[in-house]
Amino acid sequence: MEPTRSDARARTDDEMPPQPDRSAKDMALSLLVLLAPIALLFGFFQVVLDGDEPPVIDPEPAIAQARAVGAFPVSEPVGLKDDWRLVTARFRQEDGGHTLRIGYISPDGRGVQVVQSNRPAERLLPAELTADAQPLGETELAGRTWQRYRARPGEHALVLLEPERTVIVVGSTEESDLRYLAGMLR
């Protein structure tokens, strides 16, 4: 005869099968079994797949599109050192003009962007650098006069004003890196 449900509820603690004792060693082994594969996956991601590094992209499609539209002369860095990582490139029509944005990670790991546009400078500069951007004077780079700016908090910018376009090199890296990148534009 099988026990009924009410019989099962009526059992006392003395009748329950004994539970094995769990020690701290057993819990540590259980955690090790769970954490070991996670640690291996994390290590593989970091070492083999360069987990923290942003992917390097090919800017050529965006640059080719900008050149095909012919809204302004397009420059790109030539001979940039290998420790500069190219991470973004976009060409768009926006707010009364066209804009090409190319983003880099500088050797010190900080973001830098090269913006080229035929939008009027009086609208482009406040949009890219903020309305509170402060001019800091001029500097000569590769035979051209650039304006130095203090941009968003922690950022500096170099601005080249030309009749057909405005070029902005802006980022949170050292000004020497901005000067280097601007000087490589051809």
Would you write up a description of this structure?
The protein has a seven-stranded antiparallel sheet, sandwiched between helices. The protein folds into two domains: 22-52; 60-183, Phosphorylase Kinase, domain 1. With 186 residues, it is α+β, with helices and mostly antiparallel strands. The termini are far apart. The chain has helices at 5-9, 24-47, 60-69, 121-129, 175-183, and strands at 85-94, 97-105, 111-117, 134-141, 144-150, 156-161, 166-171. The mean pLDDT is 88. Strand 6 (156-161) and strand 7 (166-171) form a beta hairpin. It is built from five helices and seven strands. The radius of gyration is 30 Å and the shape is elongated.
SSE blueprint and pairings:
Elements lengths: L4 H5 L14 H24 L12 H10 L15 E10 L2 E9 L5 E7 L3 H9 L4 E8 L2 E7 L5 E6 L4 E6 L3 H9 L3
Antiparallel strand pairs: 1-2, 2-3, 3-7, 4-5, 5-6, 6-7
